[in-house]
Amino acid sequence: MSAEHNLHLLPQTRQLRALHTIVRDRTAGLDSFVLHSRRIIRLLLEAGLDQLPFAEHQVTTPVGATYQGLRHTADLCAVAVVRAGESMEAELRELLPGIRIGKILIQRDKQSKLPHLYYSNLPPGIADGHVLLMEPMLATGGSANAAIDVLLKAGVREERIVLIDFIAAPEGIRAVTEAHPRVKIVVSSIEERLNENAFMVPGIGDFGDRYFGTTHPGA
Question: Is 219 within the bounds of a domain?
Fold first, then answer.
């Protein structure tokens, strides 16, 4: 399957655009930002789960009829890229209460400007199944590629990784698909571009700071 077919943009409905209008507003309060972000995150996670393998499964309905259904067949865990990726954990727990969630901490080196791995703690047996990699902001793609490399080194197969992004820049999408063409990407909005400071335009600001109510050290 081509990298283009592995990019899954949520249907751009009027409802989704209305939710984005609220969370992109710089005057949005913390309660409003979290509430409406979680609604978008739920849509993203559901779309991410749709990328997993299914098998046919029949059930008998209350009227005695047979329903030709489906069920998940994948052994699944999730990995959050600290800190913004942790915003997706609560919503994921509501969908899959027993899911195991790992952590990866990657920060950009101030001198080299390259992503540096500081910490990782992955669920045991991660190499045997599929992984939802939660990274809300896909800007340059550097951190996402570094996180994917951590998973690959742990034995996860590239085609079994589903990258969940709140928003993504074309530059970041290109960087990930060129480096890891078999990784599936699920995103709610593709931005116009990166500006000269590598911020997404029109963007949403620092997602982690806005979601958790903190201030970026450099702000």
Answer: no
Is residue 96 left, alpha or beta, with left meaning phi > 0 and alpha meaning psi from -120 to 50? beta
Residue with tokens 């499964």: 57
CATH of the domain at 118: 3.40.50.2020
Residue 30 lies in a domain: yes
CA dist 23 and 168 (Å) reads 15
Best CA proximity match to 24, nearest among 192, 218, 198, 217: 192
28 contacts 163 by C-beta, under 8 angstroms? no
Q: Report pLDDT digits (tens) over 40-88.
A: 999 999 999 999 999 999 999 999 999 999 999 999 999 999 999 999 9
Rounded to 10°, the helix 142-153/170-179 angle is: 30
148 located within any domain: yes
**112-140 burial code (b ≥16 CB/10 A, e <16):** eeebeeeebebbeebeebbbbbbbbbbbb
Number of domains making up the chain: 1
Q: What is the pTM of this model?
A: 0.94
- Asked if the structure places residue 49 within a domain, the reply is yes
Side-chain half-sphere CA neighbours of 47 within 13 A = 22
